[in-house]
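User: Could you write out the 3D structure of this protein bound to zinc ion? I've included everything you need below.
Assistant: Certainly. Input first, then the structure.
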Amino acid sequence: MATEKRIRFTLIELLVVISIIAILASMLLPALRNAREMGKTTVCVNNFKQVGMALYSYAGDSNSFLPITEVGNSGMTENGWGSTLMNTWAQKLAKAGAIKTYAIGESSILVCPSLFPFGKFYSHYYIYGYRYPATEHWRLGNEYNINPWYPKRSPTKTALAGDSGCKYTATSVFGQAYYYMPSCSSGAEPMNGFIHTRHQNKAAFIFADGHAETVGFKQFVPFTDPDSLLINHYYDQNGNWIEL
Ligand SMILES: [Zn+2]
């Protein structure tokens, strides 16, 4: 009589193996997620380096003026063009040839990979947040000012643009990039863009000296300067509205 030799797993053994795999996976997945997030942070910082080069390329061709945040708001018109159409800082960069003109859905240096629209160009409103001091409209040496503004604080600490986020309306859920960040605001949570620390509790910035890096909220204090990026609130990693 032939001996039947078959390897069989009991149900208990099978469950043990499955649970071991589950434990190993649970140990590995956060590491993978961290690695993926670090990759996105690197892409974002590199984007800002390119944005910085575009800003200074623009300034080089514009009597050292950086682009204005937007034209057409607050009754402003675009000098010499006679236009009252809205023009964001990125559109001005594109018009000047400092960056390419993006099509919708195209990968863009203007967009963070970690928040809607996730590294793809969608609209000139859903891009990185550029400076927008509330009291003076945009003053960073733009062509609408007789007296150009220069940072009094060290340019290494003066942010020009960074990771921003906003709510679409005051009551909607947080979750999209926004093309400018206001200087300060009190009272109700605004619909404007604010710094969003989406990169493992840090936000990426391009600074006036041309360097790009991620900064945590504890380092936002240097920005609370009349000549720097004034903020008194920011969005944390989870989109919560936090007072500094
Ligand atoms: Zn980012």
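The chain is about 25% helix and 15% strand.
User: Perfect, thank you.
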